[in-house]
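Predicting holo structure, nicotinamide-adenine-dinucleotide bound.
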Amino acid sequence: MPEESREYELFINGEFVPSDAEERIDVEYPYDGSVWASVPAGTPSDVDRAVASARGAFKSEEWGGLTPSERADALHRIADVLDDYADELAELETRQNGKLIREMSSQMSGLGGWFRYYAGQCQTREGRTIPVENKNGQFHTYVREEPRGVVGAVTPWNSPLLLTTFKLAPALAAGCTFVHKPSSYTPVSALRFAELLHEEAGLPAGVYNVVTGSGSDAGDPLVTHDDVDKVAFTGSTSVGRQISAKAGEALVPASLELGGKSPNVVFPSANLDNVINGVIKGIFAATGQTCLAGSRVFVHEAVADEFIDRFVDRARDIELGDPMDSETEMGPVAFRDQWETDVSYIQTGVEEGATLSFGGEQPDDLPGECFLQPTILTDVENDMTVAQEEIFGPVASVLTFGDETEALELANESQFGLAAGVWTEDMRQAHRFANQIEAGTVWVNEYRTLSYNAPFGGYKDSGLGRENGAEGLEEYLQTKTVWVDLSGEVDDPFKLG
Ligand code: NAD
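Done. Tokens:
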């Protein structure tokens, strides 16, 4: 860790600029609590400047005037720069949220793929002509796709640049410009990202702006700004609900990627070696701090005892430690408040009748105050708090079921619908289950895989809209229909058509 804390500024109109406010936010390394950076606590007037800059870039020849192929070139340049700087960005990510360097390195080295995929979309997407019903075919009617305009994006702390890229790559492909409010726990990587995109990849000034700060002083003014045309939010369901209500009032479209409580369902025919790895991957990778965590593990009664024994044994062996060490398997929780939330959920689970089969403790041989053992609660019933509420930490709730119908009913009995896993060697059962589960993503005999070309998003309270794939681009486009009269004659003015 650097010995001195570095002071960052806002990134607006292609350069670092001071905030209007003097107040700053410290950024800590969760492993040991050391402060290594600070950013401005941005204000509504900072947001005004950033939105004005994005509006200027949207209207400019340098960005607004680009052809789709020129935009594709810009996205390819960004991808190349991200490849070159992947190691540096991975280290920044780990320092901010304590996620494993091995995970952040693989996320950062994959970001270029998103920009290349959407560069391809720029060049291959085509318009439509509509064969409208009319006499003599006197209309040429066609559909244009146009960028929505200025995007106001707000993101969480758990995978900062990956979740930003899910929005930024399609937004730029569409021709939009962007103002980003990152989480106040993880603001630094976004600032460096903006610097790289403009200084190394040559993005015109104002295309991507970053205002750091709190949800109330920077996030809210951004998502309610009069000159923002589209809101893109990833975060908790409670904040998403507030943003959705405000965007609805202003008639601004909002895409929302929200919380989850995803079921990971184990049938007796499943390969138990794979299941153990898949369930660990689902809940203890990333210290459970992932929206798609497989935090409800449903196991068929016939294999429940063997599963729980093996799951506990593997959890006991998980190597906790410094996330910068490539051997570490689980790092700290990202900050103390989240640690307290996790521990309080574990206590609630036990009070409501669950058995603490493993974990729940802060190991005493590690620094800082954010380490928590991987935790397994068994004897969980579906109406308990730990089976229904998102914990967002390394806490697995294990439930049992008797048959496929019961498994499906229990799995669907949730306000959330982000993702699901199903483990079975019976492929008919796998597809039946995938068809009937209420979730935006289903993995069969795997868990926690993502790709730029595979749409991702939630059913029910897990969100609105989709990121990635062609659907991800459509969030940033609007449709215009153009009717061109070819007859040279305008007849009866009193009839429609
Ligand atoms: P959060 O909702 O507390 O904060 C998310 C962002 O919103 C932060 O930048 C925060 O400063 C900002 N914010 C807070 N209040 C605001 C307001 N009133 N107006 C505007 N902005 C505001 O979430 P978090 O704790 O940062 O992240 C964890 C949550 O994110 C979990 O619920 C997790 O499931 C969810 N998440 C979802 C996905 C997905 O793709 N579905 C991905 C990652 C995380």
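The pocket of nicotinamide-adenine-dinucleotide is lined by residues 154-158, 163, 181, 183-184, 214-216, 219-220, 223, 234-236, 239, 242-243, 257-260, 291, 390, 392, 418, 458, 463 (CB under 6 Å).
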